[in-house]
Amino acid sequence: MFDKSKVDYSLYLVTDSTMLPPGTTLVSQVHAALQNGVTLVQLREKETDTKVFVQQALQVQKLCREFNVPLIINDRVDVALAIEADGVHVGQGDMPIPMVRQLLGPDKIIGWSVGYEHEVQQLADMGPQAVDYVGLGMVFPTNTKKNPKKTPMGPRGVSKLLDALQNTKATWCRTVAIGGLHPNNIPRVLYQMCSEDGKRSVDGISVVSDIMASPQAGEATRRLRNLIDAECYSFVDGVGTNVEACTSTVDEACIESTKLNSPLIHHITNKVHQNFGANVALALGSSPIMSEVEPEFVELSQVPHATLLLNTGSVAPLETLSSAVRAYNTAQRPIVLDPVGFSATSTRLELNSYLLAQGQFACIKGNAGEILSLADMNLGKMRGVDSGDAGSDISIIVAATRLVAFRYRCVAVCTGKIDVVANGLNLGKFKLSNGCAMVPSQLPAYKVECGDIAVMEKITASGCSLGTTIACLVGGITDQQNVFSAVLTAVRLYKSAGYAAASACEGSGSFQVKLIDALDSLLTKNQPSLWKATVSSI
Ligand SMILES: Cc1nc(C(=O)O)sc1CCOP(=O)(O)O
Ligand SMILES: C=C1C=NC(C(F)(F)F)=NC1=N
Ligand SMILES: [Mg+2]
User: Fold this and answer.
1) Closest CA to ligand 2's atom 7
2) Identical fold between 4-230 and 243-537
3) What gap in Å lies between CA 470 and CA 462, rounded to an integer?
4) Whose CA is nearest to atom 10 of ligand 2?
């Protein structure tokens, strides 16, 4: 009998004989997986008669014993008892947990499929003798599970369930993520899934098709093993880490890089913003391109210093936006997201939530309404925060901006009379099980202010073009420079230019022209010490 508190959930294979490639068998696939680092096996054969199922179970059990890996039986508690398996996994519609525990006794492993917070509450109510681990899913769409009743929850959905486990004190319960997990998304989801108290991330990753449908199951397993043991998501590793370097000298270096490298700024944005955004990018020594032509996204993302500015005010279809995110993540080039009108309508909320699950963003920039919504601090409770005297509500804005930075592991910017910038990039390495050892309130955050520029709200696309400015600076820097510093410099630059334009214009029409003039001249002169907007840490 093994000690169930010692089970390693890190790479959990769930079988499925319906997808075996030619020339492979259930046993050969499981064997290859066991040889290459799978740490737990579940026999899940939905379409097999009991007699065959029992034979398969005995064969797989023999193999697992050779590798000292526990064997879990899916659904079939009777078979698990008959062959003395190490445990069972049951779904919400299967035999109730207390009954399973009563049949199996205290030493066997019981796993439960969980997709909603109320199911976590039920688990906590049953206490530590009931469920030993949960499968949290499905994270992404998958063809493996027939007629799935659940919709993909994304990394954010898993984090919410980790929060629920923490909040209900179900700390004994182990967790694995499952559903559509493959090498192209596993580093990111491991990096993004963490409870808000920073204490808990998933204990493992569970896959079916990535191994079972692979003609080279051993290699597929080895790839997964290496990704899980790698401990950092390469896209953000090394950028945005030296936060303390945010001094004016850094601003000059960022500006210099943009002038030198003239980054390609790929805009996917709303019609109103396109023209003004292009002019802002040109004024900032960068080369704008507005393209929603999906076939060219990969090519664009591979242009040196290419950067994507995604403004969800764009009417492009969701799949177009998603393929742009995938292209730039694959090219490991930064994406700036402007979740326009984030929760103004349910369609916008759904679109933005879906997009946020598709990839890793370097920076999310929004107004108070959008940032508060992303932080689930909906405006209803916050009387007039988005327009009122930001001074009194700045602490709410700061908390929300830090929360967005933490949840999406990015630099978060909340625009307003005072802009707030929080750095969620330097959480660096993820760890299985033990979270990221940071909490939102500890994230570095800065205010950028320079008096009141009322006219800023009047011109079209003023907020959107801050997105362009951020993309120009983030796109221009070299690998040795710091994404967070680039964003902070962009916010300072834009606010200073806005101030200069407001002082020189006769109204909102000339304001736009003056703004572009100011951006151009501030960039050209590159003297941040003279800029009007000041940065102060919070
Ligand atoms: C068995 C299972 N359970 C899920 C859940 O959401 O509870 S998703 C799933 C299938 C996962 O297969 P693949 O790794 O091939 O996407
Ligand atoms: C439906 C399922 C959900 N999760 C899991 C596991 F990942 F193993 F926890 N197994 C299943 N069969
Ligand atoms: Mg906006």
Assistant:
1) 135
2) no
3) 13
4) 135
Q: Which ligand is nearest to the CA of 416?
A: 3
Whether the CB-CB separation of 379 and 372 falls below 8 Å is answered with yes
In the chain, where the domains are located = 4-230, 243-537
The whole-angstrom separation of Cα 498 and Cα 494 is 6
Q: Is 447 helix (H, G, I), strand (E, B) or coil?
A: strand
Q: How far is CA 316 from the centre of its chain?
A: 22
Nearest to 302 by CA among 328, 334, 320: 328
- 413 or 431, higher pLDDT: 413
One-letter amino acid identity for 178? I
Query: Which has the minimum average pLDDT: 283-287, 448-452, 468-472?
Result: 448-452
Burial of 395 (0-12, 13-18, 19+ CB in 10 A): exposed
Read off the tokens for 438: 């940071």
47, pLDDT greater than 60: yes
Return the best residue to mutate from 142, 205, 221 for the ligand 1 pocket (most ligand atoms within 8 A of CB).
Answer: 142
| Ligand 2 neighbour 148 (Cβ under 6 A) | no
* 8 Å CB contact between 508 and 276: no
Q: What is the pLDDT of residues 384-406, one digit of tens each?
A: 444 444 445 899 999 999 999 99
Q: Residue range 447-461: average pLDDT?
A: 68
Q: How far is the CA of 286 from the centre of ligand 2 (A)?
A: 48
CA angle 525, 528, 529 (to 5 degrees): 115
> What per-residue confidence (pLDDT) applies to 454?
63
Q: Over 90: is that where the pLDDT of 323 sits? A: yes
Q: Are 310 and 336 in contact (CB under 8 A)?
A: yes
Mean pLDDT for 477-494 is 90
Q: Pick the catalytic residue: 254, 464, 472, 505?
A: 464
| Spatial contact of 456 and 432, defined as CB atoms under 8 Å apart | no
Is the CB of residue 206 below 6 angstroms from any atom belonging to ligand 2?
A: yes
Q: Tell whether ligand 2 has an atom less than 6 A from the beta carbon of residue 176.
A: yes
CB burial of residue 222 (10 Å; 0-12, 13-18, 19+): middle
Q: What strands, in cross-sheet order, belong to the sheet with 335-338?
A: 287-290, 264-268, 307-311, 335-338, 363-367, 411-415, 419-423, 445-449, 534-537
52-91 b/e (C-beta count within 10 Å ≥ 16 → b): ebbebbebbbebbeeeebbbbbbbbbebbeebebbbbbbb
CA of 420 to the centre of ligand 2 (A): 41
Ligand nearest to the CA of 12: 2
CATH code for the part of the protein at 4-230: 3.20.20.70
Q: Give this prediction's pTM.
A: 0.92
CA 64 to chain centroid? 34
- Which architecture does CATH list for 243-537? 3-Layer(aba) Sandwich (3.40)
Respond yes or no: is residue 464 known to be catalytic. yes
